[in-house]
Amino acid sequence: MIIVAITGASGVIYGIKLLEALKELNIESGLIISDAAKIVIEDETAYKIEEVIKLSDNYYEFNELTSSVNSGSFKFEALAIVPCSMRTLSSIAHGYGNNTITRAADVCLKERRKTVIVPRETPLRSTHIQNMLTLSQEGAVILPAMPGFYSDSDTVDDQINFIVGKILDSLKIENNLYKRWQ
Where does this protein hold dimethylallyl phosphate (predicted)? Predict the structure, then answer.
C-alpha cells in the first residue's frame, strides 16, 4: 500500500491526481488529509473532500495518533506527502510527530521505507533548504513540484501529470503520464 498525505500547501491537485493514478494502476492506497488541506482542496479545486477520500482504499484521520499507520508494525510500502507544507516538512525533519502525517513519516524514515516529499513553497528560506537536506540525508526523496518543459507540455494537466509521473517513478511504479526524454 502507498500512503498519500495531502497537507495545506498550494498544489493539492498533485495529491489528488496521484490518488487517481494509483487507482487506475490498481495499487492499494491510503490517504491522510490535514485540516488545512481540506480548506485548500475546497479553495483550489472542484473536488469535494468526500470525493477525494473515495479515491483511496483506506482513509486515516489527521489527528488520530492511534491510527495503524503510526506504528512501525503496520505494513505499507511507501509514503508520498503531496504537497508538503513547510510546517509539515519542518516537523518531520525535527522528529515532531504530532499528527498522523508527521508520525507516519517518522515511521517511514525510521523503518527505511520509501518516503517522497513534494514541497510546495517559493522562494525558499535557508531553513527550508536545511530541513530538506536533513530529510534527504535520512533517505527521503525531495521532489519539488517543478515541472519540466521538455515533455511538450501544452496544458496545466500535462504539467500536473509530469510531477505525478515523477512521483510514481520515485516509488518505482511504471507509468506513462509524461513524455520521457528521448
Answer: 150, 166
The residue among 133, 8, 21 whose CA lies nearest residue 82 is: 8
Per-residue pLDDT tens over the stretch 135-181: 999 999 999 999 888 777 789 999 999 999 999 999 999 999 988 87
Residue 8 annotated as binding?
yes
Name the amino acid, one letter, at 91: S
Instruction: Say what the pTM is.
Output: 0.96
pLDDT band at 10 (very low <50, low <70, confident <90, very high): very high
Any binding-site annotation on 67? no
Residue 70's alpha-carbon distances to 17, 32, 104, 115, in angstroms, are 24, 11, 5, 14
Task: Tell me whether residue 9 is annotated as binding.
Answer: yes
Domain boundaries, the chain: 2-171
**150 annotated ligand binder:** yes
| 125 annotated among ligand-binding-site residues | no
Rounded Cα gap, residues 53 and 30, in angstroms: 9
Structural fold of domain 2-171:
Rossmann fold (3.40.50)
Measured CA to CA in angstroms, residue 176 lies from 81, 128, 158 at distances of: 21, 32, 12
Burial of residue 168 (CB within 10 Å: 0-12, 13-18, 19+) is buried
Phi and psi at 74, nearest 5°, equal -85, 125
- Residue 56 known to bind ligand: no
Query: Is 170 assigned a ligand-binding role in the annotation?
Result: no
Whose grid coordinates read 530529510? 135
